[in-house]
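Sample pair:
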Amino acid sequence: MSQTPQVKNIVLVHGAFADGSSWSKVIPLLQAKGYKVTSVQIPLTSFQDDVAATKRAIAAQDGPVTLVGHSYGGVVITEAGNDSKVVGLVYVAAFAPDAGQSIVDISKAFPKPIGLEKLAPQPEGFLLLSPDGIETGFAQDLSKEEKALLIAVQSQTHGSIFAAQPTQAAWHSKPSWYIVASNDHMIAPEQEASMAKQLKATTTTLPSSHVVMLSHPKEVAKVIEDAAAGVK
Protein backbone atom coordinates (compact mmCIF):
# COMPACT_ATOMS: atom_id res chain seq x y z
CA MET A 1 0.00 0.00 0.00
CA SER A 2 1.22 3.49 -0.79
CA GLN A 3 2.25 5.95 1.89
CA THR A 4 -0.64 8.25 2.80
CA PRO A 5 0.11 11.95 2.31
CA GLN A 6 -0.22 14.34 5.25
CA VAL A 7 -3.95 14.97 5.44
CA LYS A 8 -5.68 17.93 7.10
CA ASN A 9 -9.32 16.90 6.56
CA ILE A 10 -10.85 14.38 8.98
CA VAL A 11 -14.39 13.10 8.37
CA LEU A 12 -15.97 11.17 11.26
CA VAL A 13 -18.95 8.82 10.89
CA HIS A 14 -20.91 7.68 13.93
CA GLY A 15 -22.60 4.31 14.33
CA ALA A 16 -26.09 3.00 15.03
CA PHE A 17 -28.05 4.13 18.10
CA ALA A 18 -25.97 7.32 18.24
CA ASP A 19 -25.35 10.68 16.59
CA GLY A 20 -22.46 12.93 15.66
CA SER A 21 -21.84 13.90 19.29
CA SER A 22 -20.20 10.47 19.65
CA TRP A 23 -17.04 12.30 18.60
CA SER A 24 -17.42 15.26 21.00
CA LYS A 25 -14.25 14.44 22.96
CA VAL A 26 -12.10 13.61 19.93
CA ILE A 27 -13.04 16.64 17.81
CA PRO A 28 -11.37 19.32 19.98
CA LEU A 29 -8.21 17.22 20.32
CA LEU A 30 -7.90 17.02 16.54
CA GLN A 31 -8.82 20.67 16.03
CA ALA A 32 -6.11 21.67 18.50
CA LYS A 33 -3.61 19.96 16.19
CA GLY A 34 -4.78 21.98 13.20
CA TYR A 35 -7.08 19.46 11.55
CA LYS A 36 -10.33 20.42 9.85
CA VAL A 37 -12.87 18.03 11.37
CA THR A 38 -16.36 17.16 10.12
CA SER A 39 -18.67 14.90 12.11
CA VAL A 40 -21.30 13.58 9.71
CA GLN A 41 -24.85 13.31 11.01
CA ILE A 42 -25.90 10.18 9.14
CA PRO A 43 -29.70 9.76 9.26
CA LEU A 44 -29.69 6.00 10.03
CA THR A 45 -32.76 5.65 7.80
CA SER A 46 -31.04 3.38 5.27
CA PHE A 47 -27.53 2.39 4.22
CA GLN A 48 -27.97 4.34 0.98
CA ASP A 49 -28.98 7.49 2.86
CA ASP A 50 -26.04 7.14 5.25
CA VAL A 51 -23.51 6.66 2.45
CA ALA A 52 -24.97 9.64 0.58
CA ALA A 53 -24.67 11.89 3.64
CA THR A 54 -21.05 10.79 4.09
CA LYS A 55 -20.23 11.40 0.43
CA ARG A 56 -21.65 14.92 0.71
CA ALA A 57 -19.35 15.59 3.65
CA ILE A 58 -16.36 14.25 1.70
CA ALA A 59 -17.27 16.41 -1.31
CA ALA A 60 -17.27 19.51 0.91
CA GLN A 61 -13.60 19.01 1.88
CA ASP A 62 -10.86 21.02 0.17
CA GLY A 63 -8.34 18.20 -0.20
CA PRO A 64 -7.48 14.62 0.78
CA VAL A 65 -9.57 13.03 3.54
CA THR A 66 -8.95 10.56 6.33
CA LEU A 67 -12.31 8.81 6.82
CA VAL A 68 -13.17 7.42 10.25
CA GLY A 69 -16.07 5.15 11.20
CA HIS A 70 -17.37 3.79 14.50
CA SER A 71 -19.43 0.57 14.74
CA TYR A 72 -21.94 0.49 11.83
CA GLY A 73 -20.12 3.59 10.56
CA GLY A 74 -17.45 1.12 9.47
CA VAL A 75 -19.85 -0.31 6.89
CA VAL A 76 -20.57 3.22 5.68
CA ILE A 77 -16.88 4.15 5.28
CA THR A 78 -16.19 0.83 3.55
CA GLU A 79 -18.49 2.04 0.75
CA ALA A 80 -18.02 5.82 0.91
CA GLY A 81 -14.25 5.39 1.22
CA ASN A 82 -14.03 4.50 -2.46
CA ASP A 83 -14.25 8.23 -3.15
CA SER A 84 -11.01 9.44 -4.75
CA LYS A 85 -10.53 12.11 -2.05
CA VAL A 86 -10.26 9.45 0.67
CA VAL A 87 -6.67 8.35 1.23
CA GLY A 88 -6.96 6.44 4.53
CA LEU A 89 -9.56 4.63 6.62
CA VAL A 90 -9.82 4.36 10.41
CA TYR A 91 -12.14 1.74 11.91
CA VAL A 92 -13.00 2.44 15.56
CA ALA A 93 -14.56 -0.70 17.10
CA ALA A 94 -16.25 -0.92 13.71
CA PHE A 95 -17.65 -3.43 11.28
CA ALA A 96 -15.47 -3.89 8.20
CA PRO A 97 -17.30 -6.11 5.71
CA ASP A 98 -16.10 -7.07 2.27
CA ALA A 99 -18.16 -6.33 -0.83
CA GLY A 100 -21.42 -8.27 -0.75
CA GLN A 101 -21.22 -8.94 3.00
CA SER A 102 -23.55 -7.60 5.69
CA ILE A 103 -23.11 -7.17 9.44
CA VAL A 104 -25.26 -10.27 9.90
CA ASP A 105 -23.08 -12.29 7.51
CA ILE A 106 -19.74 -11.42 9.09
CA SER A 107 -20.94 -11.83 12.69
CA LYS A 108 -22.30 -15.39 12.47
CA ALA A 109 -19.05 -17.08 13.50
CA PHE A 110 -18.64 -15.01 16.69
CA PRO A 111 -20.39 -14.88 20.08
CA LYS A 112 -23.50 -12.70 20.20
CA PRO A 113 -22.69 -9.67 22.39
CA ILE A 114 -24.99 -8.93 25.34
CA GLY A 115 -25.87 -5.48 24.03
CA LEU A 116 -27.75 -6.95 21.08
CA GLU A 117 -30.21 -8.51 23.55
CA LYS A 118 -31.29 -4.99 24.58
CA LEU A 119 -32.89 -3.77 21.35
CA ALA A 120 -36.38 -2.26 21.47
CA PRO A 121 -38.32 -2.46 18.17
CA GLN A 122 -40.09 0.72 17.08
CA PRO A 123 -42.70 1.43 14.37
CA GLU A 124 -41.78 1.29 10.66
CA GLY A 125 -38.82 -1.03 11.11
CA PHE A 126 -36.76 1.21 13.38
CA LEU A 127 -34.88 0.14 16.51
CA LEU A 128 -33.74 1.75 19.74
CA LEU A 129 -31.21 0.46 22.22
CA SER A 130 -32.90 0.38 25.63
CA PRO A 131 -31.54 2.60 28.43
CA ASP A 132 -30.23 -0.56 30.09
CA GLY A 133 -28.60 -1.49 26.79
CA ILE A 134 -26.79 1.86 26.67
CA GLU A 135 -25.73 1.56 30.31
CA THR A 136 -24.55 -2.06 30.30
CA GLY A 137 -23.88 -2.95 26.65
CA PHE A 138 -22.93 0.23 24.83
CA ALA A 139 -21.12 2.46 27.29
CA GLN A 140 -20.58 0.55 30.53
CA ASP A 141 -17.31 2.36 31.33
CA LEU A 142 -18.70 5.90 31.11
CA SER A 143 -20.07 8.01 33.95
CA LYS A 144 -23.75 8.03 34.86
CA GLU A 145 -24.07 11.53 33.37
CA GLU A 146 -22.39 10.50 30.11
CA LYS A 147 -24.66 7.48 29.78
CA ALA A 148 -27.72 9.70 30.33
CA LEU A 149 -26.54 11.99 27.53
CA LEU A 150 -26.13 9.05 25.15
CA ILE A 151 -29.68 7.94 25.96
CA ALA A 152 -30.97 11.47 25.30
CA VAL A 153 -29.29 11.90 21.88
CA GLN A 154 -29.81 8.35 20.58
CA SER A 155 -31.16 8.26 17.03
CA GLN A 156 -33.62 5.58 15.97
CA THR A 157 -31.86 3.18 13.62
CA HIS A 158 -33.58 1.36 10.77
CA GLY A 159 -33.15 -2.40 11.06
CA SER A 160 -32.33 -2.72 7.36
CA ILE A 161 -28.80 -1.44 7.94
CA PHE A 162 -27.79 -4.77 9.47
CA ALA A 163 -28.43 -6.47 6.12
CA ALA A 164 -26.79 -3.76 4.00
CA GLN A 165 -23.89 -4.83 1.80
CA PRO A 166 -21.17 -2.58 0.38
CA THR A 167 -20.74 -2.89 -3.39
CA GLN A 168 -16.97 -2.34 -3.18
CA ALA A 169 -14.76 -2.47 -0.08
CA ALA A 170 -12.46 0.56 0.03
CA TRP A 171 -10.04 -1.12 2.43
CA HIS A 172 -8.75 -3.28 -0.43
CA SER A 173 -7.17 -0.21 -2.02
CA LYS A 174 -6.76 2.28 0.86
CA PRO A 175 -4.47 1.91 3.92
CA SER A 176 -6.41 1.12 7.09
CA TRP A 177 -6.09 1.54 10.82
CA TYR A 178 -8.22 -0.33 13.38
CA ILE A 179 -8.97 0.21 17.08
CA VAL A 180 -10.10 -2.94 18.91
CA ALA A 181 -12.18 -2.34 22.06
CA SER A 182 -11.32 -5.33 24.24
CA ASN A 183 -14.35 -4.91 26.57
CA ASP A 184 -16.87 -4.33 23.79
CA HIS A 185 -20.39 -5.65 24.50
CA MET A 186 -21.85 -4.64 21.11
CA ILE A 187 -19.31 -6.30 18.78
CA ALA A 188 -17.36 -9.33 19.97
CA PRO A 189 -13.75 -8.18 20.56
CA GLU A 190 -12.49 -11.33 18.83
CA GLN A 191 -14.52 -10.31 15.76
CA GLU A 192 -12.92 -6.86 15.84
CA ALA A 193 -9.44 -8.44 15.99
CA SER A 194 -10.37 -10.76 13.11
CA MET A 195 -11.58 -7.87 10.96
CA ALA A 196 -8.44 -5.84 11.70
CA LYS A 197 -6.34 -8.80 10.58
CA GLN A 198 -8.36 -9.20 7.37
CA LEU A 199 -7.80 -5.52 6.59
CA LYS A 200 -4.06 -5.84 7.32
CA ALA A 201 -4.74 -2.73 9.38
CA THR A 202 -2.35 -1.01 11.74
CA THR A 203 -4.08 -2.12 14.94
CA THR A 204 -4.39 -0.62 18.43
CA THR A 205 -6.19 -2.45 21.25
CA LEU A 206 -7.72 -0.46 24.10
CA PRO A 207 -9.44 -1.76 27.30
CA SER A 208 -12.72 -0.08 26.43
CA SER A 209 -16.44 -0.44 25.99
CA HIS A 210 -17.95 -0.06 22.52
CA VAL A 211 -17.74 3.75 22.70
CA VAL A 212 -13.95 3.80 22.76
CA MET A 213 -13.81 7.35 21.38
CA LEU A 214 -15.65 8.57 24.49
CA SER A 215 -13.81 6.47 27.06
CA HIS A 216 -10.31 6.80 25.50
CA PRO A 217 -10.47 9.97 23.36
CA LYS A 218 -6.76 10.82 23.52
CA GLU A 219 -5.72 7.38 22.30
CA VAL A 220 -8.34 7.44 19.54
CA ALA A 221 -7.28 10.92 18.43
CA LYS A 222 -3.66 9.72 18.28
CA VAL A 223 -4.57 6.83 15.96
CA ILE A 224 -6.50 9.23 13.70
CA GLU A 225 -3.48 11.58 13.66
CA ASP A 226 -1.22 8.65 12.73
CA ALA A 227 -3.57 7.75 9.89
CA ALA A 228 -3.62 11.34 8.64
CA ALA A 229 0.17 11.36 8.69
CA GLY A 230 0.39 7.95 7.01
CA VAL A 231 2.19 6.38 9.99
CA LYS A 232 1.87 2.59 9.73
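The longest helix spans residues 47-59.
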